Amino acid sequence: MKLTVQDLNSHYGPAHILFDIGFEVGEGEVVALLGRNGAGKSTTFRSIVGLVAQRTGRITFEGKDVSAKPTHEIVRDGLGYVPEERRIFTDLTVEENLEVGRQPKRPNAPHWTREKLFALFPNLGEMKNRPGGRMSGGEQQMLTIARTLMGNPSLVLLDEPSEGLSPKIVEQMVDAILTMKKEGVSIVVSEQNLHFARLISDRAYIIERGRICFGGTMAELDARPDIRDAHLSL
Amino acid sequence: MAFYVVQFLTGLASAASLFLVASGLSIIFGVTRIVNFAHGAFYMIGAYIAFTLTERLSGAFGFWGSIVLAALAVAVIGVIVEMVLLRRIYHAPELFQLLATFGLTLMVEDLVVLIWGPDDLVGRRAPGFRGAIDFFGQNIPSYDLFLIVLGPVVLGILWLLFQRTRWGVLVRAATQDRDMVAALGVNQKWLFTSVFAVGVFLAALGGALQIPRDAVHHAMDLRIIVEVFVVVVIGGLGSITGAFVAAVLVSELNAFGILIFPKISIILVFLVMAVVLIVRPWGLFGKPEAAARKTPGLTVNPWRPLTSNERLMALAALAVAASLPLFAGNYLLTVGSEIAIFVIFAVSLHFLMSVGGLASFGHAAYFGLGAYGVAFLAKMAGLPMIVCLLLGPLLGCMGAAVFGFFAVQLSGVYFAMLTLAFAQIVWSIAFQWVSVTGGDNGILGIWPEKWAASPSHFYWLSLGVAALVTIALRMMVFSPFGYALRATRDSLLRSEAVGINAKRIQWTAFVIAGTTAGIGGALFAYLKGSVFPDNLGISLSVDALVMVLLGGVETVSGAVIGAIVYKALNIWLVSQTDLSKLVLGGFIMLIVVVFPKGIVGMLEMLAQRRRKSSPPGSPLLAKPIESAE
Questions:
Q1: What is the ipTM of this complex?
Q2: Contact between B183 and A68 using a beta-carbon 8 Å cutoff
């Protein structure tokens, strides 16, 4: 297994947010973490990379326990994280944003260069020197993904990549994610949008109120409209 | 004309050191969000070490080598401080780091005297820049010309460092979003340490370069730190260019202020700063600060009124305090009165700072205004004591009303700096308007009337007022006004969205806090029998901050304990040792590291832990991530 999460519990102060979360991601797999707003998707990701201070449980990445490591070490092990709110550095240019993400080559992961990323996201190549703050939402979303890829991760946590984007950009996003998959990057993508998830994912987990309540292939999920309606539809 | 040109050049030369120190402070603040109060101390150590080295090493290489070596040595000290002290407290409430670096400053002030003695030291002239250049009959020291060139050169080097190196890019990224930088695999610990080292290096270099111009002495840290704060705020926090422009501006204001407005030369700089902050709240070259990215759920237990048991305990404590005159002598009672007065002062700042989220760096202004109010009424109008005590604080109230109106337009560090500027203006007026305030000689002979003259009576009076004020402010915390004020603190936007007039609420809080401080000041005038400009000076404002932080910012009434502990310790240490600052500074740093939530905050935490033996998620509680917010 590429990534295994077991019995993950997280708290924000006195509030208990995640309850015994567990899921697995295989080598080269794209796994969707589906759930409504506030279900705990982002907190799950933040907990995995160590950005939530109060968490317990076991997180194994490439066979090694990373649950006690600080964020930057987890990321350096090859576990990339693309946050939900994009969080690009608005004062820095596109190239500088990419520079922040740059990490050395990794033997078990595809190697990304600026050129390769500009080929993947042509828009970015056209605005190398533009400050991040003066880009559209879609361009910013591409930049966050490109920035994380500069770290040559072997697995990427993608937090709601389609949120707030126009259908055309969403299409580009689907292409980009499929390219990443083809290159051999394992991906966990959190989504509210089942349609988007279906286009890219092999398997899916459904999270609701901080608990995993379903896990299976996309076909298995499609065979259970009751689950879909109970946990995903608005 | 030539005279003015020379004056201008002197100003430019002074700007060089100021710029070095200010840019260091700005860089450190940008990344670590630490307002490094010890920056002036590093500047001072730089000067002292450079002095010693230049005395030992001879020749031109010896001199310039000494300057650089001194700055490097201080940078190493800075790294040690960062790793040993600051790393432990990045998670502490905002401003707590300020307290730690303040403690460090106190220690350094005593250490410097221990090592180098109390006398001014006059350093060597710089080889190659000993002479002066004649300019239409006026002399310009050639060293000044060297400094004038150095400033822009350093600016250029820093610019290259930040724009053209990976380190610079990382630093700029971290200035904006530290967590995200960590989430991209950058070890923030070392980034912070390196940033701190660079900042301290610049400060020490600034100090070392001063030795051919100025005598080295043990109070140079406080003088520069205030100016540097002003520069950084005028220029805009985090902007190196801004620091440069502002350093030039401030230095020229100093150079020409003396000539053009000799009467208000001291306040000129602060006036300009106040105007800049009002017109452009984020400084000339700064950017409006993005709303701080607060990790949800990190604030501690919700505040609650005292339970009846706790009320009884507080009453019992008050009764014990009130029984002090039964067994204590006059000296102890006077100390007791002073502590009670400082409790009033501390709770007033605490109200503004903890309940309102507005950390004032110039709260002593209102304390001092209250004291001067009493002095005017008692000495000039000859009013009876009780009237003076009631009306005197109104001067503090008025001051707070005027300054507060402008100050609450800002927030965060900028608010702190504007309040500092206002306090400095008030101080300068008290200092320079000799005909009314007596200037440095103060106003003497304000003695209490017979009914309050004995130490025990005065003690009871002070204690009574302190208790009343504390209770009143506490009640206010749990009143609708208190809820509204806390709402503006926790989320300005949301509070406005539910119909709270945030600025007005904050202004009201400012006036309440200022008036309360004035009450303390009024009593203080009677306790001491005199009023001096120091009663509204910076060090008193800092004392108030320390008391609040020591007690615990996130508590409802921690300031009471903070004031008692700090003041008692302070008075006791001064009577016991010549090295009171060293001990006090060490004590403050210890408290900061051991009780990062303040004394009362710590006690509350312990009490809560006892209440439920296993807090949620504790068994395997992951270590807090050092780098996260």
A1: 0.92
A2: no
